Amino acid sequence: MSTRQLAMVIDLNKCIGCQTCTLACKSQWTDRDGREFMYWNHVESKPGKGYPRDWEQAGGGWESNGEKLKPGRLPRLEEDYGIPADFNYDATLFQEGMQPLRPTEAMQWGPNWEEDQGAGEFPNGYFFYLPRLCNHCTKPACLAACPRQAISKRAEDGIVLIDQERCRGYRYCVAACPYKKIYFNPLAGRSEKCIFCYPRVEKGIPQACAYQCVGRARHVSYLDDQAGAAYRLVHEWKVALPLHPEHGTQPNVYYVPPLSTSTFDAAGKPTGKPRIPDDYLVSLFGPGVGGALETLQREIAKKEQGAASELMDLLIAYRHGDMFRLGRLGEQKS
Amino acid sequence: MSATIRARAALGLLAATLPLAALAQEPAATIQAARAAIAAADPDHPAWNAAPASVVKLETAFPGHPSIVGTAVAQRLVVKALRSAAGLAIRLEWSDPAADSQKTQHRFADGAAIQFPRDGKSDTTPYMGGGGRHVNIWYWNAARNTAENLWADGFGTLARMPTQDVKASGHHADGKWRVAFFRAFRSSEPRAAKLPATPVGTQPLAFAVWDGANNERDGFKAVTMNWQSLQWAR
Ligand code: SF4
Ligand code: SF4
User: Fold this and answer.
1) pLDDT band for position A328 (50/70/90)?
2) What is the CATH number of the domain that holds B214?
3) Which residue from A minimizes the CA distance to B69?
4) How far is A151 from chain B (nearest CA, A)?
5) Atom 8, ligand 2: which residue's CA is nearest?
6) Residue B1 above 50 pLDDT?
7) Residue A262 within any structural domain of the chain
8) Where would I find the beta strands (DSSP E) of chain A?
9) B198 with B185: CB under 8 angstroms?
């Protein structure tokens, strides 16, 4: 059990799907040595099959009594993750003619395969971006599934790590994680996952994905730090919700659910109903969605009328540095 | 979880899942270590032709953890052993219609292992050792086609030895794996099984086989439930 929990809040109303976070993570941690196919952080368009393909149907997590793990399956490279293909840069950039940029091998899937596809028919189509990473869960299914106690949750910040010395690549954790956020490195013969940038965190520097986020969509702070954005958005304002809480792992990455514009009826008149169906959002973020969206709308309305809104100021994040509070207990800057 | 609690939990699980019949001492197979000029980790070496074959029965191992579920495929193993002046070679042969030797995200490789009580005594538990009575395991895996020299002191404690002086090589043909292991009698590794240079008497050993196509890995394996016996030919 960890005594403190570092948490991330991602505001889906601000994420622009630029994948800066994905690349910040990849170039820092996963661009080499058998990790080329892995995306510890990726951004998928919702609704969609996501990454790895159909991860929401791949099992894992806890039974509803919270005592037994549900079975899960292992994603495949070509079909579910996608091969880390090379591209014809040379032909495109340095040779005569107008060669389009294409992968040199046929790809079946990838981390951003269904970008901007979404669902719904014109004029009521909709989609939104869902950045995903390991949730550094309070009750990690991956940890419980490992017969070798190779996975641990750090007491000081709740970061879930796989001990690469102890791991023997059995992959029970890959199957058990309902978010499919553990990847087997076939070259190393071991399983690997997001490390919440712990070497940065230990120096008080935010995770690469959060620090580089151009949308100012990601806040990071300890959940018990009442001045931190995570505490305020999760516990005080209740506008930040965990992804698929029904799996029982108690995720510590939280999302501010997306608002959407009104649908149009056959006559082209706005109906007042949001394009992203509420029940779809509830299926992702649980029963707190309704309350969260109401709060957001109410606070937006205040701001529109020129009144103050502490919540909106927090989400707008006028000062980049205000989004992160990583000081350890006792050394927190106020 | 402390090691003791873990060991106790594993034992509890063992007691709960153990079919009683399995505890009854099944007659152990005796494997004759035939003398030969050459004993090597070569599964196709002609020297094996002269070695006597023993058939060993395999059963699904006790699951040491709730993650481990399923029935292992392999049911029998043909074992041969050769000893030369240099060391001991053991060859395992079992049926497996397909060789699983790929290193991919969702597939597991076939494997085989030989386990020895480090002190050569058969009152060490053959289920990965325990309580300070540790075991030495020679492990072969089709993806790497080399041996790993391992040791364990109970469920979940398997680890690599600092000294990797075991050799192994496998070959799949005609729906069968043949995997040969070799180690010199002397090992500089203090935790390695002691193999007598002037062989007398018997040496307990146990076997395991993993079928990758059945997702077997870790404790999901076909094993000998009791120590078998290697007899040193005079
Ligand atoms: S998201 Fe998955 S890998 Fe990360 S802690 Fe939770 S169960 Fe484990
Ligand atoms: S960097 Fe920020 S805005 Fe860009 S995709 Fe990632 S989370 Fe969204």
Assistant:
1) low
2) 2.60.40.1190
3) A71
4) 12
5) A15
6) no
7) yes
8) 6-11, 42-46, 128-132, 151-153, 160-162, 182-185, 190-193, 218-222, 241-242, 253-256, 262-264, 270-274, 324-325
9) no
Mutate to test the pocket of ligand 2, among A214, A243, A253 (most ligand atoms within 8 A of CB): A214
- Look at the block and give the residue holding tokens 């549900």: A70
Partners of residue A146 in chain B, C-beta under 8 Å: 67
| Burial class of residue B154, CB neighbours in 10 A (0-12, 13-18, 19+) | buried
Over 90: is that where the pLDDT of B107 sits?
yes
Q: What is the pLDDT of residues A289-322, one digit of tens each?
A: 999 999 999 999 999 999 999 999 999 999 999 9
Percent of chain A with pLDDT over 70: 98
What is the pLDDT, as a whole number, of residue A3? Answer: 87
- What per-residue confidence (pLDDT) applies to B44? 97
CATH number assigned to the domain comprising residue A111: 3.30.70.20
User: Which residue segment(s) compose the domain that B136 sits in?
Assistant: 3-15+24-232
Residues of A with CB under 8 A from a CB of B: 37, 68-69, 73-77, 81, 145-149, 168-172, 176, 183-184, 186-187, 189
Judged by CB atoms closer than 8 Å, whether chains meet at B217 and A75 is answered as: no
Write out pLDDT tens, residues A195-220: 999 999 999 999 999 999 999 999 99
Instruction: Count residue pairs from A and B with Cβ separation < 8 A.
Output: 51
d(CA B75, CA B41): 24
Boundaries of domain holding A178: 6-325
Q: Residue B72, CB half-sphere, CA atoms under 13 Å: how many?
A: 28
Nearest to B143 by CA among A278, A169, A81: A169
Residue B77 tokens read as: 């193993």
Question: How far is the C-alpha of B205 from the C-alpha of B135, rounded, in Å?
Answer: 10
A220, A11 in Cβ contact below 8 A? no
Q: Is the pLDDT of residue B197 over 50?
A: yes
What's the structural domain count of chain B?
A: 1
> Ligand 1 within 6 A of A315 CB?
no
Measured in angstroms, the CA of A258 and the nearest CA of chain B are apart by 34
> What's the number of domains chain A is made of?
1
Taking alpha carbons only, the member of A149, A169, A185 closest to residue B148 is: A169
The four Cα atoms B15, B18, B21, B24 give a dihedral, to 10 degrees, of: -50
Q: Which amino acid is at A89?
A: Y
Is the pLDDT at B66 greater than 60? The verdict is yes
Q: Which of B105, B156, B217 sits opposite A149 (nearest CB)?
A: B156
Q: With respect to residue A84, please indicate whether it lies within any of the assigned structural domains.
A: yes
